Amino acid sequence: MTSICHEDGTILYNQDEIGMEILGFYGNLMGKANEDLIGIDLVAMKGGPQLANDQRSVLVRPISEHEILQALKDIGDLKAPCVNGFGAKFFKVSRHIIKQDVIAAVIE
User: Fold this and answer.
1) 66 and 27, same domain (yes or no)
2) Four-residue CA torsion sign, 104, 106, 107, 108
3) What are the angstrom distances between the C-alpha of 93 and each of 43, 52, 78, 87?
4) 97: domain range?
5) How many Å apart are CA 65 and CA 100, to the nearest integer?
6) Is the domain of 103 the same as that of 64?
7) 51: Cβ–Cβ under 8 A, 6 or more apart, which residues?
8) Largest CA distance in the chain
9) What is the pTM (predicted TM-score) of this model?
10) Residues in Cβ contact with 68 at an 8 Å cutoff, skipping those fewer than 6 apart
11) For residues 88 and 78, is the Cβ–Cβ distance under 8 A?
């Protein structure tokens, strides 16, 4: 990005200033962290519904190759995991080439 317009109308060209402007803009949209929070109330957490041991083990078991490939299949073609420009369709079409790399990345 070579420039950005600050909310006061000035044009920013410096990369550090552009970065700060973007962080500030989205930070204001998202809000600030509440510093008054003490932490998690364990007594309240233990008083609520809890998972059974078999449910817990399902959540922490290793993910299978089948689950990874099924999740990829279920993603809409125009969806993208991030702003890198590669939508799900890219991964689906090139699966025969990148399958093992994708599986290794997800497992990692």
Assistant:
1) no
2) positive
3) 50, 40, 13, 10
4) 60-107
5) 9
6) yes
7) 59
8) 59
9) 0.47
10) 102, 103, 106, 107
11) yes
CA-closest candidate to residue 94, choices 68, 66, 72: 72
Say how many domains are in the chain: 2
How far apart are alpha carbons 15 and 18 in whole angstroms? 5
Distance CA 41, CA 35 (A): 16
Q: What is the pLDDT tens value at each position of the chain, 108 positions in all?
A: 889 888 888 999 999 999 989 888 888 777 766 676 677 777 877 887 888 899 999 899 999 999 999 998 898 888 876 666 678 888 889 989 999 998 999 888
